[in-house]
Design goal:
The protein has a single domain, classed as Spore Coat Polysaccharide Biosynthesis Protein SpsA, Chain A (Alpha-Beta Complex), CATH 3.90.550. 29% of the residues lie in helices and 23% in strands.
């Protein structure tokens, strides 16, 4: 069941090297049988595991073209009604809860009408929510309609139709999540997740163009990746630091290259 839903991972030129760390940990803690598609721009100069596929979205034009590029791909190339979406720097730092993931997939499949997404992290536990069902080990919760971060891009199962409806032209991924985005709340759609337990522990490796102080810690649970896995990533330099100045310069270069090619 967990291999029946496709996994898409977004990346950018500046942070593409982290795809290697993501792939390594994904195959350690998720499954080598699950097909993963990386959505990026420049083609990588490194090999990926056999269950990973890389697709270029073209020239990286800048952060405000994110919604245009993602919408074009999922509108024209993706035939899946449901998919998991995440980022290359949302590193998986512990074994996923496979029974919970199977429950989430089954729930989304049976309740696709009116579904926006099902969050697989602990994100909803710290936000406004209502318990829908209680079981021995977990609760099924639904985000309140007025909860301001209903469009959070934390690792989630998305309903493609509704996801596309939320993508407006000229949006960065950060504005997509922003409470100021029109129609981000009170839309009548279901945003679900788990209480007391959850599927996946992830860390955030980069923020605003720089490497986080502890890129191996799940801030929602304070769980940290084991030292042996950290050593593999650091020894291979799969998570290099990137300074804000370098980040902005690369974005400007990408935009100039796009303009010249136009």
């Amino acid at each position: 069941m967990i291999n029946s839903i496709p996994v898409y991972v977004m990346t950018a030129n500046q942070t593409m090297k982290a795809v290697q760390a993501f792939a390594y940990l994904f195959n350690e803690f998720w499954s080598t049988k699950t097909q993963v598609t990386i959505l990026g721009y420049d083609m990588p100069d490194f090999e990926l595991p056999s269950n990973f596929n890389y697709i270029s979205l073209g020239i990286q034009r800048g952060k405000n073209y994110w919604s245009d590029d993602i919408k074009a791909y999922f509108s024209n190339e993706c035939n899946d009604e449901l998919f998991i979406l995440t980022f290359e720097d949302n590193l998986i730092i512990d074994k996923i809860d496979k029974p919970l993931l199977e429950y989430a997939i089954e729930f989304c499949t049976a309740n696709k009408d009116g579904l926006l997404k099902f969050n697989l992290t602990a994100d909803l536990q710290s936000r406004g929510n209502t318990v829908i069902e209680s079981y021995d080990q977990f609760d099924l919760v639904q985000a309140d309609q007025h909860e301001i971060f209903r469009l959070s891009l934390n690792t989630s199962i998305w309903n493609k139709e509704e996801f596309l409806n939320k993508l407006n032209p000229g949006e960065s991924m950060h504005f997509f999540e922003n409470p100021a985005k029109p129609n981000s709340t009170d839309d009548g759609l279901g945003v679900y997740g788990f209480g007391r337990s959850y599927v996946i522990k992830t860390s955030e490796a980069y923020r605003r163009g720089t490497k986080c102080e502890n890129p191996y810690k799940d801030c929602l649970s304070n769980y940290t990746l084991s030292e042996d896995h950290v050593k593999v990533i650091e020894d291979n330099n799969w998570l290099p630091p990137i300074g804000s100045a370098d980040y902005l310069q690369k974005l400007q270069t990408d935009q100039l290259q796009y303009i010249e090619r136009k």
